Amino acid sequence: MTSKLLVHPHAPDKDGFIHHITPTSAGWFHVGFSVLKLAPQKVVSRPTEGDEVCLVILSGRVRISAGDVDFGLLGERESVFDGLPWSVYVPAKSNWTVEAETAAEVAVCSSPAEGKLPARVIPPSEVGEEVRGKGTNTRHVRNILPDTAVAESLLVVEVVTPGGNWSSYPPHKHDVNDPPRETYLEETYYHRLKRGSGFALQRVYTDDRSLDETMAIGDGDVVLVPRGYHPVGAPHGFDLFYLNVMAGPVREWRFTMSPDHAFLTW
């Protein structure tokens, strides 16, 4: 049986989209997520309407403009495993254009906003890096739009998990809006495997098991996390990257640990 939480990429459409997930298609209210796979010289433009957008250059070099501002050529990674990203924040009630200089992949992360902030570049020098966990729970976090950065609702982060390690672990959840204890945040995971083959595993489950799904993830898959715990396992030999997008009514990342795993170090 096919999981409604697991979304596979499709061939690029006429504009280059291989994923186009909206709040309506996901069955929730806040997070939108798309991925563009662009050939050189391909140009794509979109209005932001009632959403703020974070364009994350996953690979390649692209020229990005937002509103009336041309930010020029950005991007330097050959793949998502090659260092820190360049990104561009675009406010609501604006528009953006991406023109590929090389073959490129760009993530389009969105959530509702009012358009209070200016467009800006988020260079690699502003992306906070941290190592989280220890032992086989070690992973490398790249904070693009954490809750300490300026945005109206979006939270965006990259994580690289070495093969053989666990990530988003110990299991935690953020599906109850009770700040500061816990905040309600919808979340997408865009997965990439360094070898481009093989698989990783992700489980999404609640305490009462009314939701309990374990998915084999392929390169390029998206997992939707509407609620519950959502740990990820990367098999030995297959380093795993994922791009997380979160949003909800309160722009804070506050989570609750699984009681069964509370003795473990985050």
From TrEMBL:
PANTHER family: 5-DEOXY-GLUCURONATE ISOMERASE. Its EC number is 5.3.1.30. InterPro entries: Deoxy-glucuronate_isom_IolB, KduI/IolB_isomerase, RmlC-like_jellyroll, RmlC_Cupin_sf. Pfam families: KduI. The lineage of its organism: Bacteria, Pseudomonadati, Pseudomonadota, Alphaproteobacteria, Acetobacterales. SUPFAM superfamilies: RmlC-like cupins (SSF51182). Gene3D superfamilies: Jelly Rolls (2.60.120.10). It comes from Acidisoma silvae. Keywords: Isomerase. This is 5-deoxy-glucuronate isomerase. GO terms for molecular function: 5-deoxy-D-glucuronate isomerase activity; glucuronate isomerase activity. One of its GO terms (biological process) is inositol catabolic process.
